[in-house]
Specification:
The structure holds 2 protein chains of 2 kinds. Chain A is of the alpha/beta class. Chain A is 60% helix and 9% strand. Chain A has 3 domains: 26-124 and 229-291, Periplasmic binding protein-like II (D-Maltodextrin-Binding Protein, domain 2, 3-Layer(aba) Sandwich); 127-219, 3-Layer(aba) Sandwich (D-Maltodextrin-Binding Protein, domain 2), CATH 3.40.190; 295-499, MetI-like fold, CATH 1.10.3720.10. In chain A, 45% of the residues are buried. Chain B folds into 2 domains: 1-76 and 154-238, Rossmann fold, CATH 3.40.50.300; 86-152, no CATH class. The chains are: A alpha/beta, B alpha/beta.
């Protein structure tokens, strides 16, 4: 059996290499990335449009790449060329050194990594505290330190803000604040709570779209507690070298050009007015965007076909490889009880890694896009297949296996004629579980640019737009259902007739 | 043909086969008689090389059975067990021809052999494409017998071949088995707990108790000159009451 495992391993590597090759190639484009929230999408779209106008290189959009870990990993490994970032995030999350704060110092630290930082764009997306205008006027609130004089006020804060040291706990210490009641509340709900008067103070991000609409006052951070999260573009040094006109144009047209109020307005146009990133970005750049509602709907229809194909490819390819690998692994476990238990435990541990973390681990190895998603999905699908193969084969009737030896079947005949058909029901159950699981897990692939229905879910989450989330989630659920039914039909081909239905009856 | 030389086999603390020696001559039938747990089935599994003996040797045609020689030895042995141990996912024909398929026989040759065997064991041809679950106990047992005979081995090992059958099927199959043993001149090692079966099939009977050979001989030897009180007790326990025999 050993050579067979090796051959499968080689096949897997070859398959991955082929896909990786297919994903690259073509004229060297400038690849623009973004995180998966509105502001990041918007700035990235603006960057992509400016780059396209300059026309030095074709533009590729790799938006919605999860959080800092994933998108920065993609930049560091050369999978993307540029994305919007914040100075505070660079010092805290990337350099792990909160003491570096100004842009020149950050540039000096990033240069050895082959990365450059643009001129700041003008706005900072920092934590801030907001109150209603009538409250501010009545109590004379302009700065955070003014709150000191009004301990009777109540507050509703996002759970993250309540927890983080650069949130409420630090702020409270820094200013020596006391408030009557501080409640945790989901960020999206704090604005309505404030506006309806159920609370007096909330935490906001300084560019929140809602700030542009509601009549609120953002309190000045007069004792400079909140770290600076000035928006910049983080790019590979090669972009500045290779595409000097693009890099210059980006700095000239964006450097210091977007203030907090403008950014909040752009965010609001997407989140509150439900306009697309493309429309809002085009309007900002003074371009004419000829996207009427009808064509937008048609595009969604075409998108759905593309996304369905992408999703099916993700599920199909990863499942095929998982079967090709999981089946032999399960058989190995059944043959070698001790090593097998270790092996199954190893695969089990793999399963306990959160799917998003597993996807993030794939970036240094395989970059971003479809390949790392496929590898991660494979690893996820392995356990049910290997475990069920093991369970099915190792629980076969002793006497039936003895009889195979007496009939002088060789290893291959015993496997193909006796063990696999008898264990088929159990093995197929494992494959079915893996398939349905993979349809769901594959929606996470979008976080590393793997495409599929997750693209809609990620966008929808970024926009807090339930219809868009559902546009991805419902087809995924339907696909899971369809795949389940498909496998039920496949059972009729794979499982010998007398073993179907009540397996206990046929003896 | 087949010989056990001072064979012992233990499972943990339990001695299943205790210093057993016996021989099977070509063309003869030997019955291994005993109650359950007497070690008789274990002896068959030792001969088949499915278990290695702790001490002693098992020989098939003068060659000691081991991991290396097992495949050769099995070429000359057919094996039938209680309830058939048929593969539930294969039809009767597929079960019966399994060993021939493993050998790579041509389909035409297999079909001919299958027809001849069905005739020999008394299985209707129309039942050949039924699955085991669709066959009666007697039909399953006939299929198992066909499977054992497929490659025409000189030796047959049968483990309670009639054990799971109702009395009428049992009597029918018994007749067929006797015919097979005699007409094909097979060397037969048959395991049973049934004294009447031992009487019908056996020229030589080996009575086992708790892994040891208690007595060896013809039925008459055992009945008239029991070597041990256990022999008399074992035979008496299965003797029908005189009044019943008289009434029949």
């Amino acid at each position: 059996m050993a050579w067979r495992h090796r051959r499968l391993g080689a096949l897997l590597v070859a398959a991955v290499a082929t896909l990786a090759g297919a994903a690259r190639g073509g004229a060297t484009p400038v690849r623009v990335g973004s995180k998966s929230f509105t502001e990041s999408y918007l700035i990235a779209e603006i960057v992509a449009r400016i780059a396209a106008q300059v026309g030095e290189a074709p533009v590729e959009r790799r938006f919605g790449l999860g959080g800092t870990g994933i998108v920065y990993g993609a930049l560091a490994s050369g999978e993307i060329d540029i994305y919007p970032e914040y100075t505070g995030t660079i010092s805290r999350a990337i350099l792990n050194d909160p003491s570096v704060t100004d842009v020149p110092a950050l540039r000096a630290r990033m240069r050895p990594r082959g990365l450059v930082i643009s001129e700041p764009l003008g706005f900072a997306n920092t934590y801030a505290l907001a109150v209603r205008r009538d409250t501010a006027v009545r109590l004379g609130l302009r700065r955070i330190s003014d709150l000191e004089r009004h301990p009777g006020l109540t507050a509703a804060f996002d759970p993250g803000f309540l927890d983080r040291d650069d949130g409420w706990p630090g702020l409270q210490r820094h200013y020596g604040l006391r408030l009557a009641a501080v409640r945790g509340m989901e960020h999206a709900l704090t604005y309505p709570a404030l506006i309806s008067g159920r609370t007096d103070v909330i935490d906001v991000f300084s560019t929140d779209g809602q700030l542009a609409r509601a009549d609120l006052v953002v309190l000045a951070d007069d004792q400079r507690f909140f770290p600076d999260y000035a928006a910049v573009l983080l790019a590979r040094a090669s972009v500045a070298d290779r595409l000097p006109r693009t890099w210059t144009a980006l700095q000239q047209r964006l450097g210091g050009r977007i203030d907090e109020v403008t950014m909040a307005r752009l965010n609001a146009a997407v989140e509150l007015d439900r306009r697309t990133f493309a429309q809002v970005a085009a309007a900002f750049l003074g371009e004419r965007e000829a996207a009427d509602a009808g064509s937008a709907r048609r595009r969604l229809g075409r998108d759905l076909v593309t996304l369905t194909v992408e999703h099916l490819v993700l599920v199909g390819a990863s499942l095929a490889v998982a079967i090709a690998v999981g089946l032999p692994l399960g058989l190995f476990a059944a043959r070698h009880r001790f090593l097998g238990q270790i092996e199954l435990m190893g695969i089990g541990v793999l399963q306990t890694v959160p799917a998003l973390a597993l996807l993030a681990f794939m970036i240094p190895l395989f970059g971003i896009g479809r390949v790392p998603a496929l590898v991660a999905l494979c690893l996820y699908a392995l356990l049910p297949i290997a475990r069920n193969t093991y369970a099915g084969v190792s629980s076969l009737d002793r006497q039936l296996l003895d009889m195979a030896a007496v009939m002088r079947l060789n290893g291959r005949q015993r496997l193909a004629w006796i063990e696999l058909p008898l264990a088929a029901v159990t093995i197929m159950a494992g494959i079915k579980t893996a398939a349905v699981l993979t349809v769901g897990t594959a929606t996470l692939a979008a976080f590393i640019g793997g495409g599929g229905y997750g693209t809609l879910i990620v966008t929808g989450l970024a926009l807090n737009d339930v219809p868009t989330i559902l546009a991805g989630a419902v087809p995924a659920a339907l696909m899971a259902l369809a795949i389940h039914l498909g496998f039920e039909a496949l059972d009729r081909l794979v499982v010998p007739r007398p073993l179907r239905g009540s397996p206990g009856r046929a003896r | 043909m087949i010989a056990l030389r001072d064979v012992t086999k233990t499972f943990g603390a339990r001695v299943a086969v205790d210093h057993v020696s016996l021989a099977l001559e070509p063309g003869t039938t030997r019955i291994l008689l005993g109650s359950s747990g007497s070690g008789k089935s274990t002896i068959l599994r030792l001969v088949l090389g499915l278990l290695p003996p702790d001490t002693g040797e098992v020989l098939v045609d003068g060659v000691v059975v081991s991991r290396d020689t097992r495949r050769d030895a099995l070429r000359r042995i057919g094996y039938v067990v209680q309830e058939g141990a048929l593969y539930p996912h294969m039809t009767a024909a597929e079960n019966a021809t399994l060993a021939a398929r493993a050998e790579g026989w041509a389909p035409a040759r297999m079909a001919m052999r299958l027809a001849a065997l069905a005739e020999l064991v008394g299985l209707e041809r129309s039942l050949l494409d039924h699955y085991p679950a669709e066959l009666s106990g007697g039909q399953r047992q006939r299929t198992g017998l066909m499977r054992a005979l497929m490659l025409d081995p000189p030796v047959l090992l049968l483990d309670e071949p009639l054990g799971a059958l109702d009395p009428i099927s049992r009597a029918e199959l018994q007749t067929h088995l006797l015919r097979v043993f005699r007409e094909l001149r097979k060397s037969v090692l048959l395991v049973t707990h049934d004294v009447r079966e031992a009487f019908v099939f056996g020229s030589t009977i080996t009575l086992l108790n708790e892994g040891r050979v208690v007595q060896e001989g013809t039925f008459a030897d055992l009945a008239k000159r029991p070597a041990d009180p256990y022999v008399a007790e074992f035979l008496r326990a299965q003797t029908p009451p005189a009044a019943m025999t008289a009434a029949l």
